[in-house]
């Protein structure tokens, strides 16, 4: 998948789950202010991403540092590239 | 309107514009209800709670949390009496859809007074699972929240909330969630948080959808002025979480229940407008 395809899938999954306006979903949109999410949504967000990309991220420390939609994009792209990298 | 949110017909008969808010019935209502509610609250703190605590400990051997929840339920019943001259209140669906025990009630949220109408539930041993603010507000509010062992889901997080639900339901309680998390500002059903549905799937407790209508006419968010209203509380058939297996079962359960409630609320509003 290209980076843009990953971003599109992330945005589609989050928009569907949290009933977000696509126009508001810019990379610099903050989760808690611009997008109106809160700490109670974190669990659902993790589940949505895990389901969309078939990986496990709920134990990742990096999740706690996510504050914008762009952070999510970069985190997920990084996880996918890590998974695709040949072993060794 | 964001994609996926439920649209309800605009509410009818809401007298919110200008001078109509101050028609005689509304003025009388505010002069009647607020002083009586203050008096009822003082009676609750000074007389009802201590007397109930003593009697329930002596004769029923109830723990403090159980007693506190019972007092809260009686307080809600008192509220229903206070507003009776100005509010037509109807409880629907409880006879034909008798809520099982244990169960998890999920209620839509329109007004500050929605929780007061939970005094109409057939069970007094109700544990409210709510956001943090009631635990940090007026001192008697905080006291009753803590004494009743209600759940502050924001502080607990969902995992601990689910375990608390398991514990409380094992002790005979039913749970009450407002899955929207906030009062709706426009009458539309907002997106649901998953916590109550996670609890249902984890514990196997049925979800009982409760649809409340008319409280946004009674007291809209951000207002203090009460209006005469017709309020209905309708219980829908319980939904068994066993029908929603798998890791994402709670998501499917959440969407199913929300669709049921949206449909029922549309029907209730259409009936009210007719």
Can you put this structure into words, describing what you see?
- Chain A is mainly α and 88 residues long.
- Chain A has helices at 3-18, 42-53, 69-84.
- Chain A is 50% helix and 0% strand.
- The mean pLDDT of chain A is 89.
- Chain B is an alpha/beta fold and 274 residues long.
- Chain B starts with 23 loop residues before the first helix and ends with a helix.
- Residues 1-16 of chain B have low confidence and may be disordered.
- At the A-B interface, helix 1 and helix 2 of A face helix 4 of B.
Query: How would you describe the shape of chain A?
Result: globular
Number of helices of chain B: 7
Residue runs with pLDDT of under 50 for 5 or more positions of chain A: none
Strand content of chain B: 5-15%
The percentage of residues in β strands of chain A lies in under 5%
Keywords:
heterodimer; A: 88 residues; 3 helices; B: 274 residues; alpha/beta; 7 helices; globular
Topology:
The complex is a heterodimer of chains A (88) and B (274).
Chain A: H1 3-18, H2 42-53, H3 69-84
Helix pairs in contact in A: 1-2, 1-3
Chain B: H1 24-60, H2 64-83, E1 87-92, E2 104-107, E3 126-130, H3 139-147, E4 151-152, H4 153-170, E5 174-177, H5 195-203, E6 207-213, H6 215-218, E7 229-235, H7 249-273
Parallel strand pairs in B: 1-7, 2-5, 2-6, 3-4, 3-5
Antiparallel strand pairs in B: 6-7
Brief overview, please?
The complex is a heterodimer of chains A (88) and B (274). With 88 residues, chain A is an all-alpha fold.
């Amino acid at each position: 998948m290209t980076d843009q395809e990953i971003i599109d899938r992330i945005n589609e999954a989050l928009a569907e789950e949290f009933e977000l306006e696509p126009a508001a979903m810019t990379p610099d949109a903050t989760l808690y202010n611009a997008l109106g999410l809160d700490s109670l949504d974190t669990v659902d967000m993790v589940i949505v991403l895990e389901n969309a990309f078939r990986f496990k991220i709920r134990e990742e420390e990096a999740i706690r540092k996510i504050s914008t939609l762009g952070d999510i994009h970069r985190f997920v792209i990084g996880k996918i590239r890590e998974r695709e990298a040949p072993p060794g | 309107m964001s994609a996926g949110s439920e649209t309800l017909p605009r509410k009818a008969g809401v007298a919110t514009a200008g001078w109509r808010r101050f028609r005689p019935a509304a003025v009388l209502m505010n002069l009647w209800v607020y002083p009586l509610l203050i008096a009822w609250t003082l009676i609750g703190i000074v007389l009802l709670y201590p007397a109930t605590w003593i009697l329930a400990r002596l004769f029923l051997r109830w723990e403090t949390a159980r007693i506190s929840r019972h007092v809260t339920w009686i307080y809600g019943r008192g509220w229903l009496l206070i507003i009776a001259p100005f509010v037509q209140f109807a409880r629907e669906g409880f006879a034909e859809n008798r809520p099982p025990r244990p169960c998890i009630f999920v209620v839509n949220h329109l007004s500050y007074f929605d929780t007061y109408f939970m005094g109409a539930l057939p069970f007094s041993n109700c544990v409210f699972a709510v956001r943090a603010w009631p635990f940090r507000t007026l001192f008697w509010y905080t006291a009753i929240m803590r004494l009743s062992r209600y759940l502050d889901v924001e502080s607990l997080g969902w995992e601990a909330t689910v375990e608390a639900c398991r514990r409380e339901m094992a002790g005979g309680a039913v749970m009450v969630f407002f899955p929207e998390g906030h009062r709706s500002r426009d009458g539309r059903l907002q997106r649901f948080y998953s916590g109550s549905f996670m609890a249902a799937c984890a514990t196997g407790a049925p979800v009982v959808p409760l649809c409340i209508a008319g409280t946004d006419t009674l007291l809209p968010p951000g207002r203090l002025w009460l209006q005469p209203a017709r309020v209905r509380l309708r219980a829908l058939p319980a939904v068994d979480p066993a029908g929603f297996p798998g890791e994402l079962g709670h998501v499917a359960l959440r969407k199913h229940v929300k669709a049921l409630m949206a449909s029922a609320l549309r029907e209730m509003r259409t009936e009210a407008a007719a």
